[in-house]
Design brief:
Blueprint (H helix, E strand, L loop, with lengths): L2 H19 L6 H8 L7 H12 L1 H4 L15 H5 L1 E2 L2 E5 L10 H7 L18 H12 L30 H13 L9 H13 L5 H9 L5 H10 L2 H14 L17 H12 L4 H10 L8 H6 L16 H21 L18 H8 L21 E3 L3 H27 L1 H9 L15 E5 L7 E2 L2 E9 L9 E4 L4 E4 L5 E4 L11 E8 L7 E5 L11 E7 L2 E9 L3 E7 L8 E8 L8 E5 L2 E2 L2 E6 L16 E3 L11 E8 L5 H8 L1 H8 L8 H14 L2 H21 L4 E3 L10 E4 L7 E5 L18 H8 L7 H14 L20 H13 L4 H10 L1 H4 L6 H6 L12 E2 L2 H12 L51 H5 L18 H9 L1 H14 L5 H13 L5 H20 L5 H5 L11 H15 L2 H4 E2 L1
Antiparallel strand pairs: 1-2, 3-21, 4-20, 5-6, 6-9, 7-8, 8-20, 9-19, 10-15, 10-20, 11-12, 11-19, 12-13, 13-14, 14-18, 15-16, 16-17, 22-23, 24-25
Length: about 1050
């Protein structure tokens, strides 16, 4: 018998002997802990937190890491016979000493004890007592509290009938009475007004607003202020500040390069959504699936940017698919954090270790977000990552409709002219004019020809234009010329390309054609043939391209692939190890129907992969390359392939002309036929040639059509693009990714939701709209609870659930579960009315309490979990800065628009090659909500005050206290300038105490106490004397910032007042909400 097994048996016998010899008594320390336990234990409140923290990592939902086959998160499994110990069970209800768990947790033997020493976890005596008592009581399992659907909760009747104004207070007071707490008195009017002003608008009250409230003695005075503030346009800004953390909004892409992208329109949408009191269910639906609504408005499309504003990578050399998969994962994780408070990311690589979410369910959920036609590596040239929409106002839309009509009208005229050509064509045909065509003639419109016959390579039509062979590593290489079709050809090395200086540059509105002879080795399956890009993936294939892709041809015209592009693929494979002519023709229509490819003069059948080109294929700057043959920069070429006779035309060649270039024998055979011998198709080929070459009205109309297209494109090109969601057709398959790795495909999965939360009804569409409806189903246990908890957090500084991003087993239990459920059900039944929810909370006596805590109260409830006092806490960095600007009168209250760049220390952006260009004028004083948010270098003022970098969704900000925060308030130019401007206002008052009192009230929202006034007056006098004696010391105070200084001001007076204003702005009263 193995030693370990024998030792375990002996240990079990020893414990059993101890218990039975003592009459079944527990160890004294466990028995004493039991005496202090509640009369009845609740699984969710008392037991599950222990199991989750100490047991589930090895005996929880994750099958891959489960030890000994034991699962403790499921009753049936926990009560079943142990796989490795037949006849024994981990838990036997009401029989603790028949339960293997009890023996294990009481054992002192390290080989037998649970949790194991290797886990570095241990149970306290109280925790052991809870588990044993729970088993004694029947080991009743319950569904996790947050997964239980909402049900009607009766409003309690506390003993104290005199306190409270609504249902919230009855729930809170009942809990206080159970725990021996008493509510605090109502805060004074000054404190209340500042509190609700900051909580609702993020701004302090003005002096006029304070005076009006203090003078209003009506019973409705407070409610009127709440209504006024909820109706303020600044309410939406305050709410947006919080939501943008959840939505991970930023002004840059993130990752190493971290370049600018303007998605401020989404921020404006969020502000307006809150200001207009958009119902929360609509708020959720439009962000998740606005594009899938019937006839969506542009605002509903814009809302879907919520799922696109995650970090995106433009670094060279990354694997495109790896990062595309990361973006899908980000959307999935954000869904969990934002709407369900579940740590779904923990189920990406394996089954969730604590919550009942399997890895398969994770990828079923990710399938909803895996249908975006996007690139993992976004364009290096700052093009907005696709899919995008054009954001236009009514005037621009009207103009675009007019220009579209112009194009359609010119196209109709062209069709009419073509029909008019049929009569003269019949004459031309019957007279055999076509038979005079010469096979050796080059079609008209030739703009460039590389014959590769001799070095240096030049355009045979313009010997002054050279062609250069170059690669990433080496410029001006010497091309290898070898024997070609007739003379020489160039042999491609797979790494370099041959670039013409200027030729081959066309816009999407201009017709063009390219012909080339190639001989592709049999072993080559992929590579570029010709293109006008400067790096295929690096610039999302901007330009036009002809590729060999898996032995077939791919034609691309792209602004930003894969979405804003035309992409066509041939059905048949390309012949290898022989000379073939390939020709690409395009009619300038920005449509796939106008793009064709020919092989040896025969038009190839193609399938359309994308037909959605709406912006230009040019780079729009001096970096625009000419046409290139061979590899693409940081892309693949056709090693050892031969190329010859590249020809570029500034018009769409007809089929006959392509045949003329590719197959002269076939050309001659066609022309040798008598008119009566021509097939219908051959006559169509000749008609097309005739109208393009022998019927001048057609060419003239083509020019008019091209010009109309140019005018249209010129108006479209500068229009701002915004990222949106749009699903692909057909759907992209989704796979369970083994270990979460992008390339490790497991089984295919299909759209679905976690069953433990709520089964997705078959009646719902299996797309993001169906997902939104699933989230907002009245049976869904999480969505309303999570939202209500978040709104409570914004007002109290702590949610009813202290972990707003985790309602799972590792999260905190609600402090007031019945209140949370009552509010959540009421929120849904109100039509998801956010402002009504806010008003209900704001009018409660709970919220209106004084925040002062006695020493006893602070010791018994330091975090104010049981709400026996009002909310208090340090303001976010944005609000601290806005408060200073508001008090000084500098604040620019403009709402919406692109982000701005206030004062910032020099050189911070050098870390990734950026240059910070400071704003000018009033933009320096915009609200901090509009401060430029660079993910790799967040603005130091807000970042030091714990603003996140927003690389991922953030449910609640961490709160730190560091010396850097005090240094910001003392030295940030914004605060110095604000203090100076406020000091200038103080200087206009006749008496020092009046000046100080005014500044104090503007900054803190209340009057200074006598003690505070005395301290600040003494500071003012000492500083005044110092500046009188040494005026140069005032320089920093009076010259910081761009705001103009009055020529009449007395410098020592101004500087001393600025010091006082700065001291007030640095005070606890200024940066704390009471």
């Amino acid at each position: 018998m193995p030693d370990t097994l024998m030792r375990n048996i002996l240990t079990t016998l020893a414990i059993a002997f101890c218990f039975f010899s003592c009459g079944g008594k527990l160890p004294d320390e466990i028995r004493q802990a039991m005496d202090d336990l509640p009369e009845a234990l609740d699984y969710n409140i008392h037991v599950k937190p222990i199991l989750s923290d100490k047991c589930f990592a090895c005996h929880g939902p994750d099958e891959n890491t489960r030890h000994a086959g034991l699962r403790l998160d499921d009753a049936e499994a926990a009560f079943a016979s142990l796989p490795e110990s037949p006849g024994k069970v981990a838990i036997k209800p009401k029989r603790p000493f028949k339960s293997e768990m009890v023996w294990r947790i009481l054992s002192d033997d390290p080989d037998f004890r649970m949790p194991t020493p290797e886990s570095h976890l241990s149970l306290t005596d109280r925790e052991k007592a809870i588990l044993i008592r729970w088993i004694e009581e029947g080991a009743v399992y319950k569904k996790h509290w947050s997964f239980i659907p909402l049900a009607t909760v009766p409003v309690p009747f506390p003993k104290n009938k005199t306190w409270g104004s609504n249902e919230i207070d009855r729930f809170v007071l009942s809990e206080m009475e159970i725990r021996g707490f008493h509510p605090s008195p109502e805060a004074d009017k000054e404190t209340l007004l500042r509190r609700i002003s900051l909580d609702i608008t993020g701004l302090p009250p003005t002096e006029e607003e304070m005076d009006a409230f203090l003078a209003d003695n009506s019973p409705e005075a407070y409610e009127k202020q709440v209504d006024r503030l909820l109706a303020s346009p600044h309410y939406g800004e305050k709410m947006a500040l919080h939501w943008l953390d959840v939505a991970r909004y930023a002004d840059t892409h993130g990752y190493t390069v971290d370049r600018y992208r303007d998605m401020s329109l989404y921020r404006d949408w969020v502000i307006e959504a809150f200001n207009s009191n958009k119902p929360f269910d609509v708020f959720v639906t439009e962000q998740l699936a606005g594009d899938l609504l019937p006839n969506p408005s542009k605002e509903q499309l814009l809302a879907t940017a919520f799922n696109r504003i995650h970090p995106q990578n433009m670094e060279g050399g990354i694997v495109d698919e790896e990062f595309r998969v990361e973006y899908v994962a980000d959307r999935t994780n954000t869904l969990g954090k934002a709407f369900m408070a579940l740590t779904l990311e923990c189920a990406r690589c394996h089954d969730h270790k604590y919550d009942p979410v399997s890895q398969k369910e994770y990828f079923e959920l990710s399938s909803f977000f895996n249908q975006v036609d996007e690139a993992g590596q976004i364009s290096w040239n700052d093009a907005m990552p696709v899919p995008t929409m054009l954001w236009t106002d009514d005037d621009k839309e009207s103009l675009l409709r007019m220009l579209e009509s112009d194009v359609e009208r010119e196209q109709t005229k062209l069709n009419h002219v073509r029909r008019e050509a049929e009569v003269p064509f019949a004459t031309w045909l019957s007279q055999g004019e076509y038979q005079r065509l010469q096979a050796q003639e080059i079609p008209r419109g030739l703009k460039a020809h590389l014959d590769f016959d001799a070095l240096p390579l030049t355009n045979t039509l313009n010997r002054g234009e050279k062609a250069f062979m170059e690669s990433i590593e080496l410029k001006n290489q010497t091309p290898a010329l070898v024997s070609g079709r007739r003379s020489n050809a160039v042999k491609l090395n797979g790494d370099a390309w041959i670039r013409m200086e200027k030729s081959g540059v066309f816009s999407k509105s201009e017709p063009f054609s390219v012909s080339i002879w190639v001989n592709i080795p049999k072993e080559r399956e992929n590579g570029a043939i010709f293109h006008t890009g400067t790096g295929a993936v690096l610039y999302n294939r901007r330009g036009y391209h002809l590729y060999l892709k898996e032995n077939r041809l791919e034609l691309v015209l792209a602004h930003t692939a894969p979405y804003n592009a035309i992409i066509k693929e041939t059905l048949d494979e390309v012949p290898k190890d022989q000379w073939i002519n390939l020709a690409m023709t395009y009619d300038g229509s920005s449509s796939a129907s106008g793009l064709h490819v020919f092989q040896n003069g025969k038009q190839l059948e193609t399938k359309v992969a994308k037909d959605n080109l709406y912006k230009d294929i040019l780079f729009g700057n001096s970096g625009q390359p000419g046409i290139q043959v061979g590899a693409v920069w940081r892309g693949r070429g056709l090693k050892n392939a031969l190329a010859d006779d590249l020809m570029v035309f500034d018009r769409k060649l007809t089929t006959l002309e392509v045949i003329q270039l590719a197959d002269q024998q076939r050309f001659k055979e066609l022309l040798s036929k008598d008119p009566t011998q021509l097939s219908k198709n051959e006559k169509e080929v000749l008609l097309d040639y005739f109208v393009h070459n022998h019927f001048p009205p057609f060419g003239q109309q083509v020019e008019r059509l091209t010009e109309a297209r140019r005018r249209q494109a010129a108006e479209v090109e500068p229009i701002q693009e915004v990222m949106v969601m749009q699903d692909m057709e057909p759907r992209r398959p989704t796979y369970l990714l083994v270990r979460g790795e992008y390339h490790a495909h497991g089984e295919e999965v299909f759209p679905g939701t976690p069953r433990s939360v709520l089964e997705m009804p078959d009646s719902l569409p299996k797309n993001r709209l169906g997902l939104a409806k699933w989230l907002l189903d009245k049976k869904h246990p999480l969505t309303s609870r999570v939202a209500v908890n978040r709104f409570w957090l914004y007002l109290f500084g702590r949610g009813l659930v202290a972990t707003p991003g985790d309602f799972g087993n590792q999260g905190e239990m609600p402090s007031h579960p019945e209140l949370l459920d009552w509010l959540s059900l009421d929120f849904m039944n109100s039509g998801w009315d956010v402002k009504a929810l806010h008003k209900k909370i704001l009018l409660s006596a709970t919220y209106r309490q004084r925040s002062f805590a006695s020493e006893e109260l602070r010791e018994r409830d330091p975090e104010n979990i049981y709400l026996a006092r009002g909310p208090s806490g340090r303001l976010p960095g944005e609000m601290i800065r806005d408060n200073a600007l508001m008090a000084s009168g500098l604040l620019n209250k403009k709402i919406g628009g692109p982000s701005v760049k206030p004062y910032q220390p020099e050189g911070l952006w050098r870390v990734n090659g950026g240059t910070y260009v400071e704003a000018k004028g009033d933009d320096l004083y915009r609200r901090s909500l509009y401060t430029f948010w660079k993910r790799s270098v967040p603005h130091p003022t807000t970042h030091i005050f714990d603003a996140p970098d927003r690389s991922e969704s953030v449910a609640v900000r961490q709160e730190t206290n560091t010396p850097l925060q005090a240094l910001v308030l003392l030295n940030d130019p914004t605060f110095i300038e604000a203090a100076r401007v406020l000091g200038a206002e103080m200087s206009t008052l006749p008496e020092t105490h009046l000046a100080i009192q005014k500044a104090f009230r503007k900054v803190t929202g209340r009057s200074a106490t006598d003690k505070e006034l005395a301290i600040l007056s003494e500071l003012r006098e000492s500083e005044y004397r110092k500046f009188q004696q040494a005026p140069e010391k005032a320089k920093g105070w009076v010259e910081t910032g761009y705001y103009a200084l009055s020529n009449t001001v007395d410098i020592p007076t101004l500087a001393s007042h600025a010091v006082v204003a700065s001291a007030i702005m640095n005070s606890d009263a200024a940066i704390t909400k009471r």
